[in-house]
Amino acid sequence: MHHRHHGCGRHGHGNHHGHDRRFARGEEGGHRFGRDHGRMRGGPGGGRSGRLFDHGELRLVVAALIAEQPRHGYELIKEIEDRAAGTYSPSPGVIYPTLTMLEELGHATVAEGAGKKLYAITEEGRAWLAANQPAVDAALARMQAVRAAHGGPQPELMRATENLKLALRLRLARGPLDAAQLRTIAEALDAAAIAIERS
Question: Where do the Transcription regulator PadR N-terminal domain residues begin and end (predicted)?
């Protein structure tokens, strides 16, 4: 008696391997698995469910930014963060799979130099952006509205504040401070406070 096994053999899974691999890498920036593909840290201007970008929009934004000029993954993260006034910063786990997908689709090229990957738009990518121009414009306008609502210099201030906190944590982790070191750090902090108050 012969038993038929549906989808259990080698050939049963063959048609799904490519699909599974793409989603395992985080296709669409992780949209289908509910990852942090556009959740905002607060404030107006977000999309549905508090997201800055709806399904598929992050890929369009990334493509539009590398169409402006070739960029590294880290530069894309900081550019999006700046344009969103620090309310949203996409993680590397979202940006790099999105860039990989753009490359696989023929919408982006990648060049390696000094251990970094530089991504640029292709002619196919420009055509794809042109075909989706209304969605691109809507996503970029949403970031601009968020930035206007939160004020221009906020991302720079947020980064500077975090840098100060990090410097203090790292120094304190190295060991106890003597009286001279405590005085030096306190004076530096006091000077910064005075400078900020007078600006």
Answer: 64-130
